Amino acid sequence: MYNSLMKIMFLYLTLSVMLCAVENELFSFSADFNQSIKDEHNKTITYEGSVITKRPNFALWHYKKPVNKKIYVYHDVVTVIEPEMEQAIIKRVTDNIDIFTIINNAAKIDANHAEAHYNDQKFLLTFNNNHLLSSIFYRDELDNKVTINFSKQRSNLEINSTLFKATIPQSYDIIK
């Protein structure tokens, strides 16, 4: 589970960084997303949901299909709320991810594409005509092809940081 939380945190930071790399004045981003993960046998699982991010280190990923799950990032704490399992997983992320290194290493391929490298992993980014992130493609540690497509993107919304603090129902099991 820790690796999954690290991937979520890394993906959040990558998303935030790539948005900042395109538009220096960007301080928040929200969108609906469709995430597909394809394995070496071309079997695909697809997730749908929404994401809200805010500088410097806040995010809320709300997975709606095929399962309901919320992933909160509040500074260095990642909380996963899983209603179907009536549990919450809380992890403090202690690894330092050098955001500026990612920004400095993002290379523009053309007007709508960029490539970034971090920890020996390559990320291909696509931007729409409004310079907002429209997709991310990468291979995970199991060599699965991961694509996240964004729609209904909005930027620079005023978002209260308390939105990113998870509220855990008292009846839920808590895993730390």
Question: What features would you describe in this structure?
Answer:
By secondary structure, the chain is α+β, with helices and mostly antiparallel strands. The chain has a single domain (2-175), classed as outer membrane lipoprotein receptor (LolB), chain A (Clam). The chain has helices at residues 2-22, 99-105; strands at 28-38, 44-54, 58-65, 69-74, 77-82, 87-92, 107-110, 113-118, 121-127, 133-139, 145-155, 173-175. A hairpin with a 5-residue loop joins strand 10 (133-139) and strand 11 (145-155). The N and C termini lie close together (10 Å). The model is unreliable at 96-101 (pLDDT under 50).
SSE layout and pairings?
Layout lengths: L1 H21 L5 E11 L5 E11 L3 E8 L3 E6 L2 E6 L4 E6 L6 H7 L1 E4 L2 E6 L2 E7 L5 E7 L5 E11 L17 E3 L1
Parallel strand pairs: 6-12
Antiparallel strand pairs: 1-2, 1-11, 2-3, 3-4, 4-5, 5-6, 7-8, 8-9, 9-10, 10-11
